[in-house]
Amino acid sequence: MAQSAFGIFLRKLRERRGLSLRELAQLAGIDHAYVYRLETGEKESPSDETLTKLIRALKALKREGDILRYLAVNQSVSAGLAEYVLEDQTVSPEELKMAAHMAYRGSARPDYKTTIERIRRMLGDEERG
Which SUPFAM superfamilies does the UniProt record give (predicted)? Predict the structure, then answer.
């Protein structure tokens, strides 16, 4: 089973905080096996209550929490895009949403940096009117 964007984002946030699966589960008051299933993509769409617990336990920034919530309800977001957004802290949740809805042609890996730059140009054009 391929990992979900949500699962990858959750795992990388946990690892960045230096927490084991069991530590995160204990801090969040959630079964560690459930956290594992979320990270591996075996389980999807956690409840809002579960998401809130995970976000608090991870001490996630608002941006990270917003992105995690978005990924939880939008399973079609590519894992590569989620990884890119985690690495590039300048990408806003709104930019992620726009990039997630873009169609990519061919079999080559999408160039997310270029995609985000194009989105920013489009948003800038809108603001200038």
Answer: lambda repressor-like DNA-binding domains (SSF47413)
What does the pLDDT look like over 41-92, one tens digit per residue? 999 889 999 999 999 999 999 999 999 999 999 988 999 999 999 999 999 9
Would you kindly state where each structural domain of the chain is located, as residue ranges?
5-128
Tell me how many helices (H) and strands (E) the chain has.
8, 0
Task: Check: pTM over 0.70? Answer yes or no.
Answer: yes
What is the 8-class DSSP label of residue 109?
A: P
| Positive or negative torsion for Cα 105, 69, 90, 97 | positive
At the second CATH level, the architecture of 5-128 is Orthogonal Bundle (1.10)
The DSSP H or E segment spanning 84 is: helix 79-87
